[in-house]
Design goal:
- Helices cover 39% and strands 19% of the residues.
- By secondary structure, it is of the alpha/beta class.
- Strand 12 and strand 13 form a beta hairpin.
- Helix 5 crosses helix 7 and helix 9 packs across helix 12.
- The protein has 12 helices and 13 strands.
- The strands form 4 sheets. A 5-stranded parallel sheet has the order 2-3-4-1-5. Strands 6-10-9 form a 3-stranded mixed sheet.
- The radius of gyration is 22 Å and the shape is globular.
- 32% of the residues are buried.
- It has 3 domains: 135 residues, Rossmann fold (3-Layer(aba) Sandwich), CATH 3.40.50.300; 83 residues, no CATH class; 67 residues, Arc Repressor Mutant, subunit A, CATH 1.10.10.
- InterPro entries: P-loop_NTPase.
């Protein structure tokens, strides 16, 4: 099993594991945003030490009904990989029981090493309310994949020369600033008002600044295409695949016409909160959402709005953030002071 990128992060985990035999084990938290590769990384590290390791993945329902002691299948196992630990909590006052059971188990077994993974935004919240970082002295934040890594992944199905990269011959007008409107609901007056504001196109600005530097290196059109995809996707592989698929026309990529996701959804605070909950969990069941929210918010209505704007996907009662909407949901959550 191979893995692209994350070389430094892999070395940190391997070093911590190698030292665990001579001194007290240091527990590890692998932290990353949605679709940023933490499960792939966890699986890769587990398969490096299969004989002395045990692995558990928390389900989207957030249920782990077995006793954590059942992890100890034999005396050889000293490493325990637990993926998606953030799914054990609920974002409410009394929503930490299941997570605290795991943390207590970890605290009571200092001779074993626990390697866990967490959604970045859930980790930040849990750090504020539970100081969860004290349980995991080694915290590893997975970085964005580089353009060369994305190129390796996306070009792997193709033979040399099969995809053609061309500049755009059209005269296009690019907007660094866009006029938008923010819809504010005033419940007391039972009315809605639209507040105009200016929105900077940060992706375009970043791309122009980056491209200006990279042109000095005499990059090919092919290289420039993957630099652009990397900047738009922030190194996220699922989003990079979508950008690639929507940009590829008749085996040709026009570098200046590479697809960029764009959203302009008018969401109220409650719907934004539901979207952020899904965003901070990555994937979560409808049952967990209902258990978390209760009767305070009309979840059916909020999910309908989020799906209408292609911000989340719901399949088999599992809610997941759309890869294309990661940046947008993060930005509106920040404006609503949810992060």
């Amino acid at each position: 099993m191979n893995i692209l990128g994350f070389d430094k992060e892999r070395e940190k985990v391997e070093k911590a594991i190698s030292m665990s035999g001579s001194e007290q084990a240091v527990n590890i938290a692998i932290i990353a945003g949605p679709y940023a590769g933490k499960t792939t990384f966890m699986d890769f590290m587990y398969y490096q030490f299969p004989i002395i390791s045990s692995k558990v993945k928390i389900s989207c329902n957030g249920n782990y009904k077995r006793d954590w002691g059942e992890l100890l299948r034999n005396d050889q196992e000293k490493l325990f990989f637990i993926d998606d630990c953030h799914l054990l909590y609920r974002r409410r006052v009394d929503g930490f029981d299941a997570l605290e059971k795991l943390l207590n188990y970890i605290a009571n077994h200092p001779d074993y090493m626990f390697i866990t993974s967490w959604n970045l935004f859930s980790w930040e919240y849990l750090s504020k309310v539970l100081h969860i970082e004290k349980h995991f002295p080694c915290q590893i934040y997975l970085p964005e994949l580089e353009a060369e890594d994305i190129k390796t992944v996306l070009m792997s199905p193709y033979d040399t020369g099969e995809v053609i990269f061309e500049p755009d011959n059209k005269n296009t007008i690019e907007h660094f600033i866009e006029f938008r409107k923010y819809t504010l609901q005033i419940k007391r007056l039972e009315r809605t008002i639209n507040i105009p504001f200016l929105k900077l196109n940060y992706s375009l600005i970043k791309e122009k600044l980056y491209n200006g530097q990279e042109k000095k290196k005499d990059l090919t059109l092919e290289d420039m295409a993957f630099v652009k995809i990397k900047n738009i996707s922030s190194g996220n592989i699922p989003l990079s695949r979508i950008i690639w698929q929507k940009s590829l026309q008749n085996s040709t990529i026009k570098v200046d016409e590479i697809y960029t996701p764009s959203f302009d959804a008018e969401l109220d605070y409650d719907t934004t909160f539901i979207g952020f909950l899904i965003f901070s969990m990555g994937r979560v069941s409808l049952d967990v959402l209902e258990d978390t929210i209760g009767d305070e918010i009309d979840i059916t209505r909020s999910l309908a709005l989020l799906r209408k704007h292609n911000l989340v996907e719901v399949k088999n009662n599992i809610c997941a953030v759309s890869p294309e909407a990661i940046k947008y949901l993060g930005s509106i959550a920040k404006k609503a002071r949810l992060t």
